Amino acid sequence: MRVDIVTIFPEFFGVLDVSLLGRARRDGLLELGVHDLRQWTHDRHRTVDDTPYGGGAGMVMKPEPWGEALDALLGDETDALVILPTPAGVPFTQALARELAAESHLLFACGRYEGIDARVAEHAATRARVLEVSLGDYVLNGGEVAAMAMIEAIGRLVPGVVGNPESLVEESHEDGLLEHPSYTKPQVWRGLEVPEVLRSGNHAAVAAWRREQALERTRRVRPDLLPDDR
Ligand SMILES: N#Cc1c(N)n[nH]c1-c1ccc2c(Cl)cn(Cc3cccnc3)c2c1
Fold first, then answer.
1. Is 184 in the pocket of ligand 1 (CB under 6 A)?
2. What is the pTM of this model?
3. Can you tell me which atom of ligand 1 is nearest the CA of 136?
4. Residue 159: which residues within 8 A CB-CB, separation 6 or more?
5. Does ligand 1 come within 6 angstroms of the Cβ of 141?
6. In a domain, 230, yes or no
7. Measured from the CA of 147, which atom of ligand 1 is nearest?
8. 55-77 pLDDT per residue, tens
9. Using CA atoms in the order 140, 83, 151, 107, what is the torsion angle rounded to 10 degrees?
10. CATH code at 200?
11. Residue 26 backbone zone (phi > 0: left; psi -120 to 50: alpha; other: beta)
């Protein structure tokens, strides 16, 4: 999978060189390109924003640099998916992350200010699939944090990136439930003991306990994830 990121803060994505995704890049499982939007400006001040038509507070990102950036990064390619983080997007979920992990080329357009001129998404849709996605129902200052979270959630689902694929199965949201609590040594810590069933060696009993714990935790913390009959 190739991931391109366009942003006015390219240094923000330096962290993608370390940890899991850093190794995936070195193993050739993920290709990452981070691009400074200002390389597609042509004025002395490298201007990327201007005042909004119709008035209002803040500034809007100009369409011209974005258009040239997408021209340069998409070329004649037709199967890229352009992802625009925005508070007004569809919710980013584990299911969507799983879908996006199957893509061959993702381009994240990370805006700032009050947003990107709407014609950028409109014109991009004439040459690629475009998805406006929101990380969640709160407001960030730009698209970078959202893109970072999405790239991590998607990247770890790309086959081969996570060493043991089994570890992806029992995670929160993978089966629609929150994950069961986890324990490791010591057996007793500050008077708190690891549940006996986890030390029983009875794999069926462990699986049943973990399932029940996941259901109970989901009912308590995220009842909205449960259909009425669960
Ligand atoms: N994804 C996501 C997401 C989220 N969940 N919260 N905020 C964002 C997000 C994504 C992209 C931009 C761009 Cl471009 C500019 N801003 C700042 C802003 C602030 C208030 C209203 N409009 C825009 C962005 C916020």
1. no
2. 0.94
3. 5
4. 29, 165
5. yes
6. no
7. 1
8. 999 999 999 999 999 999 999 99
9. -130
10. 1.10.1270.20
11. alpha
